[in-house]
Design goal:
Rossmann fold, 12 helices, 10 strands, alpha/beta, 47% helix, 4-stranded parallel beta sheet
Length: 365
Amino acid sequence: MLSSMRLNQYFPELQDQIPWLPLIPNPTPIHRLLGLEKRFGMQSFWVKREDLTHSVYGGNKVRNLEFILAQAQRNLRNSVLTVVPYGSNFTGALSYHARALGIEVNLSQFVVFKNPQIVAHAEFAASQGAHLQNFPGKWAAPIAILNAGALQIQEFLRKGQFAHWIPAGASDATGALGHFQAFFELYDQCREQSVPFPEEIIVGAGTCGTISGLLAASIALASFKSGSSPAQITGVKAADAIVCNPIRIARLASAVLRKIGVHKKVTPEMVRLRKCPGHVGYGIPTRDALRIINIFENEDEIPLDTTYTAKVGLYLESVLQSSEYQNKNVLYWHTYSPNAYRWGQRQKLEIAKQRDLESSDTKLS
């Protein structure tokens, strides 16, 4: 419950009103990106390591799940259901953390694109006991949605209750509370570690739960500090406009503020949403995406992915050397967890070793 939450010190009147589960054992680190800072000619460039939310399966979606799965438990649901793109980061996070709580996971997946990273996420989810149904083709998304409705009916007939429905990416006002809380975690860390609080936070935007929570928190914090301006939150689009647009972000951020009891309305004009150079679609690895992945890894050992964070990396590369950013304290909000992909690589190695052993045994016999 909120009595254990960081937000309780800022919003004590909410104690026990919103369910919460502590899935993240420690605050995620912040540190300076010295290699990239030098490369881009920056004076102050930092990162918030949301890839380190959890050692088994981390990333930004664990923040959403601290509230989403707590709500499922409060509603006495022992199964959850959602519609997702095939192999999204969310599939792995949900499957692992729900299983740890004894909650059954049903994923209705529409196949947008496949690459080794995306396939690894889907395979990791299956390894955690999630029930996956995949739908390829032009009409994959609406068919996956219809399938989810059929699954709900089956669940009701089987158990006498519906599964707890989770919106795409767990990006509703409940899930976005996780990133609202993470913003205040960052604020406390900067004060405790004597780190300059960022004037600008740059983050990937897909289903928009992360950017909406951060934007709402920035507005809320500014309302506490008389005369101060909110930190500028800039989202870099990594999904189609139907799910990633200023109107949706503004509505979601406003809903988060209402949940917290802050009477501020967010308008689309307050949302800063940008495209990365050369954006070609969900998860598709372009030459520039692979190039920026190598740059971030070589300079500061930051793992990027082609679905979301390489797009942010390309945007950062395109703007940080401009005069607008040179004298600012800028923070990159890093959301990607490579754990499922690394798990997939280990699985392939184990399979290869097993085949080698079987081949050796065959030759000896």
